[in-house]
Specification:
It is a single chain. By secondary structure, the protein is mainly beta. Helix content is 6%, strand content 39%. The strands form seven sheets. Strands 21-22-18-25-26-27 form a six-stranded mixed sheet, with no helix packed on it. Strands 12-13-9-16-17 form a five-stranded mixed sheet, with no helix packed on it. Strand 16 and strand 17 form a beta hairpin. It is flat, with a radius of gyration of 33 Å. It starts with a helix and ends with a strand. 25% of the residues are buried.
Length: 326
């Protein structure tokens, strides 16, 4: 009986020491009893060397909700590694409100970063069946908003009926595409995503008697101007890509119409409000951005594209380009 008991004690002691000592290429590790861990993995430290023994990714359990999110507050949840008991906690985004469409001129507010000197709102009707009157449509980057609360960096604007999406920007940095919410009139810029765009969360702004009157889009008739481009002889097709209008195209833009085959002159009827143009052949050759011009000013309606892709402003009439100062 004593021999059996000694044998059992020896077996138990050997098994216990096996956890603390592991042979690896002739070197015996002296392992800590507790797991070492970080946010992604766990391991056993060896007191005799720098090896990380049994290193592995966490074996996560299911998320456990600690705080349910609402439309005004973020929630939180946590999960635990079943091996080392490491606990990770993350936020749960706020619940998004129901989305819809503006049915009349509707006040919309944005709380933007303190470093923004201005805030623009670009809006559109992206869902099937929604439309905005042409007179109220805007081109990129949209329309400057009205500063409502300087201390909290809140800007406002009255968007027209039909709007179901908005983007806020300062001319350089912008938000993601935002679904319009009739129930939540304040869009708070939050974190920046991997594309460098601000995400938002929805909230509510209560106007005060001291608030300024909000701007709204001006009803207008948008004229079209025929522009002409003389391009290099080896361009078989000619496209004009533009922005700032209410019908900005995807790349490479709209195909231009051949006017004079011998002189390689093409034309296109474009909205007067465009703020930028690129001429290209649809096959990788293009001009640089052509900006800071006013169509029809001093008769500007022509662009001469040299073989070097440099562009000269001109007035075109009766088959002749007359250069103009930039």
């Amino acid at each position: 009986m004593k021999k059996v008991l000694k044998s059992l004690i020896f077996t138990f002691a050997f098994a216990a020491s096996a956890f603390a000592m592991a042979s690896c290429g002739g070197h015996t590790h002296h392992l800590a009893k507790e797991w070492s861990k970080d946010a992604t993995k766990h391991w056993h430290d060896c007191s005799g060397c720098d090896d990380l023994v049994d290193k592995a990714a966490h074996a996560w359990g299911e998320w456990i909700v600690d705080e349910e999110p609402t439309e005004t507050e973020k929630g939180s949840h946590h999960r635990i590694c079943s091996v080392c008991n490491y606990e990770a906690t993350e936020e749960i985004p706020m619940l998004a409100p129901e989305f819809g469409v503006a049915t009349d001129f509707t006040a919309v507010y944005a709380q933007v970063p303190a470093e923004w000197d201005t805030a623009n709102i670009y809006y559109w009707a992206g869902n099937e069946g929604n439309t905005i009157e042409d007179a109220y449509k805007v081109g990129w980057p949209g329309t400057e908003m009205t500063l409502v609360n300087e201390e909290d960096h809140i800007w406002g604007f009255m968007v027209p009926a039909g709007v179901d999406h908005v983007i806020f920007n300062d001319g350089a940095t912008q938000t993601v595409d935002i679904d319009f919410s009739p129930a939540k009139n304040l869009y708070v810029l939050d974190t920046v995503n991997g594309e460098g765009k601000y995400t938002i969360y929805y909230s509510v702004y209560e106007p005060t008697a001291d608030d300024p009157e909000l701007g709204r889009p001006e009803g207008r008739v948008i004229e079209r101007i025929t522009i002409y481009a003389q391009v290099p002889a080896d361009w078989e097709e000619v496209y004009v890509h533009f922005w700032g209008s209410i019908e900005d195209p995807d790349w490479p833009g709209r195909e231009m119409t051949l006017v004079d085959e011998e002189e390689h002159i093409y034309s296109f009827d474009i909205q007067e409000i465009v703020v930028g143009i690129i001429f290209n052949n649809g096959n990788g050759t293009q001009t640089a951005n052509i900006e800071d011009f006013e169509l029809d000013a001093e008769g500007l309606n022509g662009f001469v594209v040299a073989d070097t892709l440099e562009v000269t402003y001109a007035h075109y009439a009766d088959g002749v380009f007359t250069p103009l100062e930039a």
